[in-house]
Amino acid sequence: MIRTEDIFKSFDETEVLKGITTEFYKGKTNLIIGRSGAGKTVLLKLLVGLLEPTSGKVWYDDTDFFALDRKQMRNIRMEVGMLFQASALFDSMTVEENIRFPLDMFSTLTLKEKRQQVDKCLERVNLEGANANFPSEISGGMQKRVGIARAIVLDPKYLFCDEPNSGLDPKTSIVIDELIRDITIEKNITTIINTHDMNSVMEIGDNIVLLYQGKLAWRGTNEDVLESDNATLQDFIFASPFLQRLRDAALKRG
Ligand SMILES: Nc1ncnc2c1ncn2[C@@H]1O[C@H](COP(=O)(O)OP(=O)(O)OP(=O)(O)O)[C@@H](O)[C@H]1O
Hints:
The protein has ten helices and ten strands.
């Protein structure tokens, strides 16, 4: 589990996060949602230690993350997998080299063991045999799957995904969401996803954290979304008339 305790973050005079206290659960897909500028990326960067809070704490299970020294922080970071926006693969490296990269950086495995681990991860994301391809030779959805394979290659306890569906069509987005959710359950890891995707909210939102102007506006599950009367949540989720009609029809059906 990851927990934030009264997190404030300012840049110069501007307060971007204003007292965020929340929890992200193990074995669950935890989503951070909110309008553009709400503070989602800043919160995600804080959670992985790319930014420091102005005040407040981030707990990784029983560990106060920002109270750690550099070496201890590095140890926690090795337990973190990251799936970046736009996959962030290295264009000049093959799929195998991309996935092997964290192993080359952080593990003491032999080349043969690393290759076995890469193959295991490729198989898990249904890309067995794609080792020798370059990112430019595969589709955007496949690139995301390579990104996921790279994010899990060190067997992380925590998985962070920044907008995993950006640039993908709706069907491919569902495949990626389901893959992330299944891996989260199988490995019993704490997964945190920063997203705008309403389909993700409804399909894999085990624990949804809604930010509004830097504050925690609502927290609940996908099942709670339809029934909540929280005005900020309803404004955000059902922003379009089309979705409002869908909600009304769903409520009528009971
Ligand atoms: N390094 C920085 N210096 C100054 N202001 C920043 C910095 N990083 C973020 N901000 C400000 O913090 C606010 C929240 O930004 P953030 O990127 O977290 O929003 P977001 O919810 O992720 O939006 P989006 O959905 O568009 O990515 C914005 O007003 C942004 O300008």
